[in-house]
Design a protein that fits this description.
Strand order of the largest sheet: 3-4-5-6-7-8-9-10
Strand content: 15-25%
Oligomer: single chain
Order of helices and strands: EEEHEHEHHEHEHHEHEHEHEHEHEEEH
Bound molecules: iron/sulfur cluster
Organism: Aquamicrobium aerolatum DSM 21857
Low-confidence stretches: none
Largest sheet: 8 strands, parallel, barrel
Family: Belongs to the IspG family.
Protein name: 4-hydroxy-3-methylbut-2-en-1-yl diphosphate synthase (flavodoxin)
EC number: 1.17.7.3
Keywords: 4Fe-4S, Iron, Iron-sulfur, Isoprene biosynthesis, Metal-binding, Oxidoreductase
Length: 406
């Protein structure tokens, strides 16, 4: 029987890769990244979204570079962000004509902190190797790292066909799904080998192999981690909308991270129309935080509520506090070092309220149905006071602000 993993395994030691000022792999903490969905040629819109993603906690941001206009916009985006004090590494996402865009726009090539290329579509069939080599040579010239990002939706069909033929000749020991997984792994490894042969150092290469099914992702990355020491970018592609995307990404990446696999993550959520793009950053942070890898924002423990809570005061208070903490973190992190370690409890009644509040740095147990309208507040494990009256929520927020300042 497999031993039960009661804590994450040590991170598998992968080669560290510097992306701007951020290190991926080599024992560094798992890095959160995200991607814009603006037209990169729209400098204002892209600057605003990159800044919002960075403020939310994204430590690297990927932008689409799909045509001359977007490549020409990249240096302006980088400069505008710098003037706003947003120094986040920008990653250029290239498909089909990356070699041409990087060659024709040297300012773009210099402004980006990393290039992401897809070996399945760096060029059309007969030109693929040549164009792949051109991008790698440009990366070497500009001293940039490259993420070789295989995606099952644009997998190298020649490689897949060859592996299927070989499997058939050998009597089909592998299922079709297993052959597909092997093709994804091989596509990443062969491309990395090729990049190294061209001269890109090992500490300039990150690999990813994205698929859309949880079990496929786990199988592919376990294999990739076993067969290479390249830093790994984790992500479930086309994870989907709403809770489906959050659950699928968390399940897949949680299992891999627990096994020490993954040096940077992106949660690819399909945003609701007009939805907030920063949600993917929040989910990534919460995944790493709940698993104990990193601490980004104070934890707000709140009970789920039940028939003993007929008012929504405690849910509203818990949500307000969580939102306030998250919004203020960029400033507070600098002003109050260690604030992200704070634990706050907002509980619905006396059943679990006092107990949970005592375990927090500061906690409140709001009155449930039939209880005296009084809310005991616990600070550092001791009952500090009892709040009463209609302004309990506001009073507790003031106490919390005072506590953080102290
Ligand atoms: Fe219900 Fe009270 Fe438990 Fe909250 S603490 S879930 S209100 S019994």
């Amino acid at each position: 029987m497999q031993p039960f993993l009661d804590r994450p395994l040590e991170r598998l030691r992968k080669v560290g890769v510097r992306v701007g000022d951020v290190v991926v792999g080599g024992g560094a903490p798992v890095v959160v990244q995200s991607m814009t969905n603006t037209d990169t040629a729209d400098v204002d819109g892209t600057v605003a979204q990159v800044a919002a993603l960075h403020r939310a906690g994204s430590e690297m941001v990927r932008i689409t570079v799909d045509r001359d206009e977007s490549a020409a916009a990249v240096p302006h985006i980088r400069d505008r962000l710098a003037r706003l004090g947003v120094n986040v590494p920008l990653i250029g996402d290239f498909h089909y004509i990356g070699h041409k865009l990087l060659a024709d726009h040297p300012d773009c090539a210099a402004a980006l902190a990393k290039y992401r290329i897809n070996p399945g579509n760096v060029g059309f069939k007969d030109k693929r190797d040549k164009q792949f080599a051109e991008i790698i040579e440009l990366a070497i010239r500009h001293d940039k790292p490259v993420r070789i990002g295989v995606n099952w939706g644009s997998l190298d069909q020649d490689l897949l066909t060859r592996l299927m033929d070989e499997n058939q000749k050998a009597g089909s020991p592998l299922t079709a799904v297993e052959v597909m997984r092997e093709a994804i792994v091989q596509s990443a490894l062969i491309s990395a080998e090729l990049a190294e042969e061209i001269g890109l150092p090992r500490d300039r290469i990150i690999l990813s192999a994205k698929v859309s099914q949880v079990q496929d992702l786990i199988a592919v990355y376990v294999e990739l981690a076993k067969r290479s020491d390249h830093a790994l970018h984790l992500g479930l592609t086309e994870a989907g909308m709403g809770t489906k995307g959050v659950v699928a990404s968390s399940a897949a990446m949680g299992i891999l991270l627990q096994q020490g696999i993954g040096d940077t993550i992106r949660i690819s959520l399909t945003p609701e129309p007009g939805g907030d793009r920063t949600r993917e950053v929040q989910v990534a942070q919460e995944l790493l935080q709940t698993m104990g890898f990193r601490q980004f924002v104070p934890i707000v423990a709140a009970c789920p509520g039940c028939g003993r809570t007929t008012s929504t005061v405690f849910q509203e208070l818990a949500a307000t506090i969580q939102d306030d903490l998250r919004r203020n973190m960029p400033v507070w992190r600098e002003k109050y070092p260690g604030v992200e370690e704070l634990k706050v409890a907002v509980m619905g009644c006396i059943v679990n309220g006092p107990g949970e509040s005592k375990h927090a740095d500061i906690g409140i147990s709001l009155p449930g149905t039939g209880e005296t309208p009084a809310a005991p507040v616990f600070i550092d494990g001791e009952k500090a006071m009892t709040l009463r009256g209609p302004a309990i929520a506001d009073d507790f927020q003031k106490l919390l602000a005072d506590y953080i300042e102290r």
